[in-house]
Amino acid sequence: MSANSFGNAGFSVLMPGARLEGRCGPTNARVRCHLGLKIPLGCELVVGGEPQCWAEGHCLLVDDSFLHTVAHNGSPEDGPRVVFIVDLWHPNVAGAERQALDFVFAPDP
Q1: DSSP summary character for residue 78
Q2: pLDDT tens-digit profile of 4-57?
Q3: Is 9 helix (H, G, I), strand (E, B) or coil?
Q4: Which spans are transmembrane here (predicted)?
Q5: How far is it, in rounded angstroms, from Cα 67 to Cα 55?
Q6: Is the dihedral of CA 72, 37, 22, 66 positive or negative?
Q7: What's the pTM value of the predicted model, to 2 decimals?
Q8: Quick one: pLDDT band at residue 98, thresholds 50, 70, 90?
């Protein structure tokens, strides 16, 4: 998804006590792949009202166009929750649609 402004990759670090209130991603043309790197107890992700589970060393696919919240309810001794996030094309987006979206939403030079 690197040919348009919806494709990103990066680390997400959430400290104990932090909470990201409900929000929605900008499009349903992508899914986000979360690779759990450090997942202390007490971390939660709820997408569309359904609890999801991160696991260290495993990927979780998330459609972030649904309302979602993230929280780290652990203690300071637990340290941060760390995931690596990569955006992928939603499997229901056809090749011609991908090309059109890449053209319309090309990143700024």
Answers
A1: G
A2: 667 789 999 999 999 999 999 888 888 999 999 999 999 999 999 999 999 999
A3: strand
A4: none
A5: 21
A6: negative
A7: 0.85
A8: confident
